[in-house]
Amino acid sequence: MTGSTAQDDPTFVIVGASLAGAKAAETLRDEGFTGRVVLVGEEPEPPYERPPLSKGYLLGSDERTAAFVHDRAWYDKQNIELRTGVRAEAIDPGEHTVTLAGGERLAYDKLLLTTGSVVRTLPVPGADLAGVHYLRRIEHSDTLRGVLVEGARVVVIGGGWIGLEVAAAARTHGATVTLVEIDTLPLRRVLGDEVAQAFADLHAAHGVDLRLGTGVREIVGEGGRVASVTLDDGSSVPADAVVVGVGITPAVELAQAAGLDVDDGVVVDAALRTSDPDIYAAGDVANADNPLLGKHIRVEHWQNALDGGPAAARSMLGHDVVYDRVPYFFTDQYDLGMEYTGHAEPGGYDRVVFRGDVASGEYIAFWLADGRVLAGMNVNVWDVAEDIGRIVRSGARVDPARLADPAVPLADL
Ligand SMILES: Cc1cc2nc3c(=O)[nH]c(=O)nc-3n(C[C@H](O)[C@H](O)[C@H](O)COP(=O)(O)OP(=O)(O)OC[C@H]3O[C@@H](n4cnc5c(N)ncnc54)[C@H](O)[C@@H]3O)c2cc1C
């Protein structure tokens, strides 16, 4: 077994060589931690950021290397043991050990779980045919770069963020795109009807054939390869490739087997500590108590990995951490760039207020409950996300007329 002994510096192990994991390791060193840091990841690559996989890298405008958080040499220089291509298979909280594939056991003093998410698969006949793709890892994006090409007939299943970004990339490359969404509008559950309609219109204007309010009955193959997709409404869409983006689930397997509290993610307190005092969790996998929102929330977005990893690292070092960030995410599709700040659940708001004209493509949408702003989304309007975050954080009642008036600076609200 490898790890610390009583007279050694402590060993901190991080499982999940992800953005949150890499940022946690970096923070440990920045904060002066001199003990052993081991960062374990099952993917062969060093930690990387996923947003470019469906945007810049997929579009061909960003280099592959631009996605990596650091190059390998950086981890060596920081004396961070980066163990890639190896899965952590079990945690023994009593013994304070992590068992890796192959049987090696690592002793830890503190452990951080940044295992992220796994894609939901599509439970229909034909979903395992060649030509059916998912997008979570960099190698998926490598493959899709050769698939979303001029003239290819691509069916995207799922109108969430990933599905829409893939549709945009495919159209940009000149593929013919059909997008199938079981709900009446893409993103309707997240954004509500008014704003979701704007995304549907955007894709329709870029030539995406939207098939809404219908699911997929079967993916039909010929010679083991996808040939068409049969929808629930009985129609058939010819396909050279299918990309499935029907959501993700938190990678809780390890935590669950170790007996940690798990409920839609690994349950952590506001200091990102699990039900075991020496085990922490951050990023997509953590269902964290957010004192600002007054509830537990699991956030599947980049900023939460970027901020949550460092917060967990500080907490592991014994700092007084209260992780109460206003959730934030962004997307880029065609010439639309947007940022969403805050958290408005379906049915949790009573009004949407627009600042600017949706048809103009430059506007801010605010979701309100009882006169308070829960979330704001700026579309092709920049340098306002921080102000929106401040309004959300304040919890103050705002005058909807002033909110809607572009002449009133957001900072004044
Ligand atoms: C294509 C794509 C585009 C995205 N675009 C955006 C965007 O525009 N804006 C935005 O806000 N968010 C975006 N996201 C979401 C964002 O990337 C995630 O929220 C973020 O990656 C979460 O980071 P994480 O550190 O929690 O874990 P992850 O990135 O999920 O990484 C977890 C890592 O842990 C590894 N792992 C899991 N279990 C084990 C184990 N037992 N042993 C060893 N290793 C293990 C996994 O293999 C993986 O490498 C996008 C995601 C994808 C897939």
Q: Radius of gyration, Cα only, in angstroms?
A: 22 Å
**What is the straight-line distance between the termini?**
58 Å
Largest sheet: 5 strands, parallel
Number of helices: 10
Going by CATH, what is the homologous superfamily of the largest domain? Answer: FAD/NAD(P)-binding domain
**Overall 3D form:** globular
Describe this structure in words.
By secondary structure, the chain is α/β, with parallel strands linked by helices. The protein folds into three domains: 11-118 and 249-316, FAD/NAD(P)-binding domain; 132-246, FAD/NAD(P)-binding domain (3-Layer(bba) Sandwich); 335-412, FAD/NAD-linked reductase, C-terminal dimerisation domain (Enolase-like, domain 1, 2-Layer Sandwich). The chain is built from ten helices and 26 strands. It has helices spanning 19-30, 56-59, 72-77, 138-145, 161-172, 188-205, 253-257, 302-316, 385-394, 400-404; strands at residues 11-15, 36-41, 80-84, 88-92, 97-100, 105-107, 110-113, 117-119, 132-133, 153-157, 176-181, 209-212, 216-222, 225-231, 236-238, 241-244, 248-250, 266-268, 279-281, 286-290, 295-298, 328-333, 336-342, 351-355, 363-369, 372-379. Strands 3-2-1-7-19 form a five-stranded parallel beta sheet. A hairpin with a 4-residue loop joins strand 5 (97-100) and strand 6. It is globular and about 65 Å long. The model has no long low-confidence stretch (mean pLDDT 96). The structure holds flavin-adenine dinucleotide. Residues 15-21, 40-43, 50-51, 53-54, 87-88, 114-117, 135-136, 162, 251, 254, 283-285, 300-303, 305, 329-331 line the site of flavin-adenine dinucleotide. Flavin-adenine dinucleotide (FAD) binds next to helix 1, strand 2, helix 8 and strand 22.
